[in-house]
Design goal:
The structure is a single chain. With about 280 residues, the chain is of the alpha/beta class. The protein has eleven helices and nine strands. The protein has an eight-stranded mixed β-barrel, surrounded by five helices. Strand 1 and strand 2 form a beta hairpin. Helix 3 packs parallel to helix 5. Bound molecules: ligand C2E and calcium ion (3 copies). The site of one calcium ion has 4 residues, from strand 6.
């Protein structure tokens, strides 16, 4: 027993080492990865719960690492935030996504204007170039500000002072939508919402998951119902993420949520996939 305990310990140790090496390796490889074009973006449709039409997509970045294959953002975004590379990486994601939105518009006008949602890291929020970079990117692509929605996590804005909110206000005044991402996971005061320049609440996946059982937990139902009615009374739209089943979609629609996103509709995929989905949708 002692020996196997020892082996287990060594194994755990070795795994920890491997993780640390990968972490270190990934961190040092990040800057060249951006130069070499190893990042790519997948798009996941945002669907109107009322009529099922595709209204836009969220841009989700991936890293095609030459040794490790495709890495999800959870593996490298924290590292990029730590080293500051998130600023140029985030700018790259924004530029690609906005250009993609332009391409969708040109190829499928009949699909209606598709909007693009892009995640913003807290480090980008405090970067002084954010507003000007965004204006430049939109202008270069010939895309109207109201086709863009920037997603900021609730936790990034908890206790935010006016300096942090100023760039978001500027963007909101220009017509860019600001969404509060992962809503319901932080501790933000609901009354605080009025202070924030947001126009969309993205309900965290944990709420969607609680709609899985049937009948759903009555307390969870009440909570979502309350959030939706508060959001609507403040003129905020409600998007739900992580919708995996038709039952969840139906429940969330009944609760008054506006837009949904999740595997039930489509996994994140290449931009052509969104073309197809939006087009199918537009032609019936
Ligand atoms: P998020 O913004 O909350 O994005 C939603 C995540 O849920 C995505 O994971 C998406 O693939 C996943 N998802 C979508 N539908 C379903 C579903 O039905 N079931 C389940 N279980 N999951 C679903 P992903 O792509 O791994 O991204 C993880 C996080 O990485 C994102 O969470 C976001 O916070 C961050 N991220 C992604 N792209 C960027 C980026 O360009 N910049 C920054 N700063 N963060 C990013
Ligand atoms: Ca998001
Ligand atoms: Ca989210
Ligand atoms: Ca999330």
């Amino acid at each position: 027993a002692k020996a196997s305990g020892g082996n287990r310990f060594e194994l755990a140790d070795a795994e920890a080492d491997a993780r640390a090496i990968t972490r270190h390796g990934l961190t040092t490889a990040l800057p060249t990865a951006l130069e070499r074009g190893e990042f790519f973006i997948e798009y996941q449709p945002l669907v109107h719960l009322g009529d099922g039409s595709v209204r836009g997509a969220e841009a989700l970045v991936r890293w095609l690492h030459p040794q490790h294959g495709v890495l999800g953002p959870d593996r490298f975004i924290p590292l990029a935030e730590h080293t500051g590379l998130i600023v140029p990486l985030g700018r790259w994601v924004l530029e690609q996504s906005v250009r993609q939105a332009r391409a969708w518009r040109e190829r499928h006008e009949e699909a209606g204007p598709l909007r693009i949602n892009v995640n913003l890291s807290p480090c980008q929020l405090t970067h002084p170039g954010l507003v000007q970079d965004t204006v430049d990117i939109l202008e270069r692509a010939g895309v109207e500000p109201d086709a863009l929605c920037l997603e900021v996590t609730e936790s990034a804005l908890i206790g935010a002072d006016d300096d942090l909110l100023k760039p978001l206000r500027r963007l909101a005044e220009m017509g860019v939508d600001i969404a509060l991402d992962d809503f319901g996971t932080g501790y933000s005061n609901l009354a605080n919402l009025r202070r924030l320049p947001v126009s969309v609440l993205k309900l965290d996946r944990s709420f969607t998951q609680s709609m899985q059982q049937f009948p759903a937990d009555p307390v969870d139902l009440k909570i979502v119902e309350g959030i939706v009615s508060l959001a609507h009374s403040l003129d905020l739209a409600v998007t739900v993420e992580g919708v995996e089943t038709g039952a969840q979609a139906e429940q969330l629609r009944i609760l008054g949520c506006d837009t949904a996103q999740g595997w039930y509709y489509a996994r994140p995929g290449p931009p052509e996939r969104l073309h197809e989905l939006a087009l199918v949708d537009a032609t019936g």
